[in-house]
Write a structure and sequence with these properties.
It is built from 3 helices and 8 strands. It has a 4-stranded antiparallel sheet. It is globular and about 45 Å long. The N terminus is likely disordered.
């Protein structure tokens, strides 16, 4: 892991917003964005905020990062859409994203399921974009979802559009 020094450039993002969803995380749940270095290791620098409504919405402003990659962690209670009530236990979901061309990043079941595979593929030489596409394809295939024109997982809002939630209800 490289030390951040004056010779390294930084990446500033004026605003990152999005939603956190299993069902939507509820007001007061937490969201943390972790800075990653060029090897995708956490640098120790993080940015914290809270979910601001019961739709799972969050916003981070004026964050200064070493690279344009970040790992997001949502932690808290959520609306359980199957039981039609708030969850009794907290849940933690993750997302990994390239922020260079995005201001909206969502944290959802698909981002959480793919993150370990993305990290594995990157560790084994895949470029970030290819690792994300491959991991998403593999996860969707596990649930017999064969759509090919799907946006990056962290851009999806209400992944029910993929039939993903319906698939989970079967298991």
């Amino acid at each position: 892991k490289k030390e951040n020094n004056e010779n390294q450039s930084s990446f500033t993002k004026e605003k990152i917003s999005g939603v956190t969803q299993k069902g939507p995380f509820i007001n007061g749940s937490s969201l943390t964005a972790f800075e990653l270095d060029e090897t995708f290791a956490q640098t120790g620098k993080s940015f914290n905020t809270q979910i601001k409504d019961n739709l799972g919405s969050f916003e981070l402003n004026n964050i200064d990062l070493l690279t344009h990659y970040a790992k997001l962690k949502a932690d808290g209670f959520y609306f359980n859409e199957i039981a039609n009530t708030n969850s009794l236990a907290s849940l933690t979901l993750y997302a990994l994203s390239d922020l260079s061309d995005k201001s909206i990043i969502n944290v959802n079941l698909l981002t959480n399921l793919e993150i370990s595979r993305v990290e594995y593929l990157i560790d084994n030489g895949y470029p970030f974009v290819d690792a994300k596409k491959q991991a998403q394809k593999e996860i969707l295939n596990l649930f017999s979802i064969e759509k090919t024109d799907i946006a990056e997982s962290e851009l999806l809002d209400k992944i029910i559009d993929l039939g993903f939630t319906e698939c989970l209800r079967k298991y």
